């Protein structure tokens, strides 16, 4: 019998002869780094990598149950939360892991910036890192949409309306994003494909390259005031720093990476256990307007900025600011690829980080309680004009309350006050018969959401009774249905099916 140890060694040799991965792996693990870089300040990149792996693993587990269909997504999350063993924990870890990942990637980026580590020869490593940040945010946004609850639904609506403001190609862009003119079945499939295939594929490839470059170019040395980076001398200086006075990455620096990553994983687990899974909030429903859609943590600041910005500055801000920010980040190492690395010699850089950090922090904090800039209840606070209630029966007055509570006036004016998306209702009874009104309200259509599921038969009866009293200032004759006497439609007849709200408007 061959001893186990020998056969394991034999297997290793067999594989190594064919793959040749062992030697470079050992070299990578033991490559010398500057002694000063085996530091607690250099642990964020590896922690982000560990979180990425955590997200991939928990994401695959979630995908086993999640149903990317507008009708079933919300239900499948309820299933995970309540029925499937530990489903809630996997959801919670994935949700909190995402928040941690955004935070760690940002901290990593600030650290690299402050230490001047983006300078020669690590320019491309930084540029890949900028794309990694954008993809991480892309994952956070698409993930939030997959939750497909009220927040996701309205957040997406706001995202789409922001996109639609892009000059010329705004319309087609929204169409491509939503998979149609409205948030519907196609929308969720698109976001699922983005969140599960497209972005993760790119993210893993970019992260692999990024890490490869870190290994190839070596870990950045601890900056010293006065030690200037110059393309002519850097390589030789770095070589001296690592070969003469370096330490092996494993174990000198690696143990700190491992301890920090473990602490982060434990923090994610603690948040997941104590605070539980994130959502889903209420079922998505365009007929429920008493909602304050709130994005996830990473995007709160954008909403707060929009809430405070005067309306006419919104569009320029939305399109100019991100372009400027991304171009500036990408161009940074190409413009400032040489020179001082130490923060004490780079006051403008330090000031910039401080200002951006304070601004983001403040807006994120404000984002937890500012009144949101689409004010969804804009018109529903307006009382129904008294003239419309005079001499009405109790049923008709009840109908006026339904109209008020269901916030029809967000889109329809009464007495000149109300939204303009739908026609004013002051003389609706002159234009429409009872049947037509019922059909319009229950089935929606023409950009009005269907209220079939949101109104009880009694509410519908009262609402229509009230609408029938709205005959305009000169009390026009009620609309009549020419075919009525022939076909004998009963007035309470309802359409057999109301389309699902998510797809109806
Ligand atoms: C999201 C905006 C919106 C909301 C909320 C809304 N509607 Fe509408 N409504 C519309 C639009 C847009 C039309 C025009 C439809 C068309 O052109 O076919 C319309 C049409 C109508 C019509 C037919 C009007 C006409 O002159 O043709 C009636 C009646 C009506 N809505 C009643 C209601 C009632 C009652 C409610 C509350 C339960 C309500 N709507 C809520 C947008 C809305």
Describe the fold and architecture.
Helix 4 (73-82) crosses helix 5 (87-114) and helix 15 (394-405) packs across helix 18 (457-467). The longest helix has 33 residues, at 185-217. It is elongated and about 100 Å long. It has helices spanning 4-19, 22-30, 44-63, 73-82, 87-114, 123-146, 150-163, 170-178, 185-217, 234-245, 249-275, 300-308, 311-335, 347-367, 394-405, 428-431, 434-443, 457-467, 484-487, 501-504; strands at residues 32-34, 228-229, 246-248, 339-340. By secondary structure, it is mainly alpha-helical. The chain binds heme C (HEC).
Structural key phrases:
20 helices, Cytochrome Bc1 Complex, Chain D, domain 2, 4 strands, mainly alpha, binds heme C, two-stranded antiparallel sheet, 60% helix, 505 residues, Cytochrome Bc1 Complex, Chain C
Chain-wise SSE layout:
Layout: H1 4-19, H2 22-30, E1 32-34, H3 44-63, H4 73-82, H5 87-114, H6 123-146, H7 150-163, H8 170-178, H9 185-217, E2 228-229, H10 234-245, E3 246-248, H11 249-275, H12 300-308, H13 311-335, E4 339-340, H14 347-367, H15 394-405, H16 428-431, H17 434-443, H18 457-467, H19 484-487, H20 501-504
Antiparallel strand pairs: 1-3, 2-4
Helix pairs in contact: 3-5, 3-11, 4-5, 5-6, 5-11, 6-9, 6-13, 12-14, 15-18, 17-18
Heme C binds next to helix 16, helix 17 and helix 18.
Shape from CA axes? Answer: elongated
CATH class of the largest domain: Mainly Alpha
Approximate helicity band: 55-70%
Order of helices and strands: HHEHHHHHHHEHEHHHEHHHHHHH
What is the third-level CATH name, the topology of the largest domain? Cytochrome Bc1 Complex, Chain C
Largest sheet: 2 strands, antiparallel
Query: What's the end-to-end separation, in Å?
Result: 74 Å
Q: β content, as a range? A: under 5%
Small molecules (ligands, ions, cofactors) in the structure: heme C
Determine the mean pLDDT. 86
Major sheet: arrangement of strands: 1-3
- The overall strand count is 4
Individual helix count: 20
């Amino acid at each position: 019998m061959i001893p186990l140890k020998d056969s394991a060694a034999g297997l290793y040799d067999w594989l190594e002869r064919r793959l040749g991965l062992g030697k470079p792996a050992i070299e990578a693990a033991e490559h010398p780094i500057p002694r000063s870089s085996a530091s607690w300040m250099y642990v964020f990149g590896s922690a982000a990598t560990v979180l990425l792996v955590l997200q991939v693993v928990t994401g695959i587990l979630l995908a086993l149950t999640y149903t990317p269909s507008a009708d079933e997504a919300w239900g499948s999350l309820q299933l995970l939360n309540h029925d499937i063993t530990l489903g809630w924990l996997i959801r919670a870890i994935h949700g909190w892991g995402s928040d941690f990942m955004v935070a760690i990637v940002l901290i990593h980026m600030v650290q690299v910036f402050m230490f001047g580590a983006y300078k020669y020869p690590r320019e491309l490593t930084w540029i890949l890192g900028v794309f990694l940040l954008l993809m991480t945010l892309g994952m956070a946004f698409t993930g939030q949409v997959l939750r497909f609850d009220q927040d996701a639904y309205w957040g997406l609506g706001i995202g789409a309306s922001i996109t639609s403001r892009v000059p010329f190609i705004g319309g087609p862009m929204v169409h491509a994003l939503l998979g149609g003119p409205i948030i519907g079945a196609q929308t969720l499939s698109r976001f699922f494909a983005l969140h599960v295939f497209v972005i993760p594929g790119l993210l893993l490839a970019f992260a692999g390259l990024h890490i490869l470059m870190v290994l190839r170019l070596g870990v950045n040395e601890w900056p010293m005031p006065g030690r200037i980076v110059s393309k002519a001398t850097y390589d030789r200086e770095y070589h001296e720093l690592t070969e003469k006075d370096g330490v092996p990455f494993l174990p000198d620096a690696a143990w700190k990476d491992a301890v920090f990553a473990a602490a982060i994983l434990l923090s994610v687990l603690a948040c997941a256990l104590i605070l539980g899974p994130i959502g889903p909030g209420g079922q998505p429903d365009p007929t429920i307007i008493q909602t304050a859609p709130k994005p996830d943590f990473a995007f709160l600041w954008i909403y707060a900025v929009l809430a405070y910005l005067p309306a006419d500055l919104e569009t320029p801000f939305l399109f100019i600011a991100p372009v400027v920010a991304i171009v500036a980040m990408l161009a940074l190492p190409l413009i400032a690829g040489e020179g001082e690395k130490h923060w004490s010699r780079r006051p403008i850089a330090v000031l910039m980080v401080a200002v951006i950090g304070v601004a983001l922090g403040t807006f994120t904090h404000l984002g937890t309680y500012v009144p949101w800039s689409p004010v969804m209840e804009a018109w529903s606070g307006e009382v129904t004009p008294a003239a419309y209630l005079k001499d009405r029966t109790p049923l008709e007055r009840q109908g006026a309350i339904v109209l008020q509570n269901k916030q029809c006036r967000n889109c329809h004016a009464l007495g000149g006050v109300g939204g303009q998306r739908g026609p004013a209702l002051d003389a609706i009874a002159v234009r429409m018969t009872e049947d037509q009104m019922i059909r319009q309200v229950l089935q929606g259509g023409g950009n009005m959401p269907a209220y079939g599921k949101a109104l009880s038969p009694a509410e519908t009866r009262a609402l229509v009774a009230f609408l029938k009293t709205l005959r305009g200032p000169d009390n026009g004759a009620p609309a009549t249905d020419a075919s009525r006497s022939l076909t004998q439609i009963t007035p309470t007849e309802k359409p057999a099916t109301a389309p699902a709200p998510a797809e109806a408007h």
